[in-house]
Amino acid sequence: MTAFACPLGNGSGSREDLGARTARSALTDSESTVEELLDWLALCRERAAARIRRVPLGELDGWGFDPETGNLSHDSGRFFSVEGLEVHTDHHARGTWRQPIINQSDIAVLGVLAKEFDGVLHFLMQAKLEPGNVNAIQLSPTVQATSSNYGRAHHGSATPCVEYFTDPGRARVLTDALQSEQGTWFLHKRNRNVIVETSEEVEVRDNFRWLTLGQIHALLRVPNVVNMDARTVLGALPFAPAANPSARLRTTDERFGRALRRSLGVGEAADPARMTEILSWITRQRSRHVLVTRPVPLREVHDWSLGPRGLTHRHGRYFDVVGVTVTAEGREVSSWSQPLLRPCGTGVNALLVREFDGIVHVLVRITVEPGYRETVELGPTVQFRPHDHAHLPASRWPRFHDVVSSASGTVHYDVVQSEEGGRFHHALNRYLVVEVGAEFPTSVPEDFAWLTLGQLVALQRHSNYLNIEARSLVCCLQTLW
């Protein structure tokens, strides 16, 4: 008998479609107001009493530069390292270059625990301190930890609730896939994005809280509250708003909201032939593009040099690698030091959307980044950091950036959000959803495609199709229906 011959997990046992349950949770937001939840996060920050201080990389306790390669790593050989990488690609004439990159072989668990209360699905979210967050604490998954951390390589306390994600059969799986992180900053990094459901009584600590999806969506309207890991996990949940067509719309634009609901309903099951075409298009792009990388010593990455501010680019572009020391209450370890990657300037991640036959379609783009395992992934319509392009002619800026910057369309979402604060220092991106009209061309270049929101959610059931920026934007887009 195989392991799949018996029922999986001890979840609620609900036979109702997950998409309908998710939609009901997204329409339930009255238990605590946004103001009350922000007050709770502020109280968690006060209790954490965090002190985060920038220090030179050479003063990091437990970290050091290898005398031969110059690579920066932890004395234990665990956690992660900063190394050099040589890259060659043909995508948009990028050519060949060298850069520092984070090498982290650990696969982290980004896990959200779900449970029904009074027939409504709730999600156990954590107010988690990360040293790179602009505001120290943000709303995070139930578990956000690498195997080094929950395996207690740091000799700290146990990770709460991790057993629901590591013990087979402990809970019922709702979504589960390995997904990439930022391909420009991480080498082949993957995390397990997973949501499981339990019917057990769960101990809820002071910095944890059960929230409906509606409450989380409301917080996504506030800058730097819902962290990157929560966005990438929750964005994979399927929706079936058609199960309750009379339910109130969450957007003030009734036409757009109804077209977005219809878009959620057009997924793999509704149009399997179109999904086959989409997968074939992605495979074709992976076959035709070149991405060759090889490790090089960090000391041989000549455009970056070590100085008082850390490891910096000679023109002040792209990113720095800086050091921090941290003391805080409530973490598995109360004090530590580490390097962080600090991007230069605020990025722009934008989706252009357009209605076709009463259904919202999303314009996504093939992206090639040095850390990808599969050469290409789907990214937002526009994904770039204006600071890094300021020296380039307009012809070298990303296609359609002018549509986003001119706000010539209808802006449905425009919020600055943080990227992961455990590895990045004050990494901010402006996330936008901009609707264009009939004047925008239906035909687009071959590395772009119009997909429905349902198709984008379906792709997240599999690994390495949507990049982290696109997955975050899917989660933001789901707040608008």
From TrEMBL:
It holds the Pfam family Hexose_dehydrat. This is NDP-hexose 2,3-dehydratase. It comes from Actinopolyspora mortivallis. Residues 35-236, 276-477 form the dTDP-4-dehydro-6-deoxy-alpha-D-glucopyranose 2,3-dehydratase domain. It comes from the Bacteria. GO terms for molecular function: lyase activity.
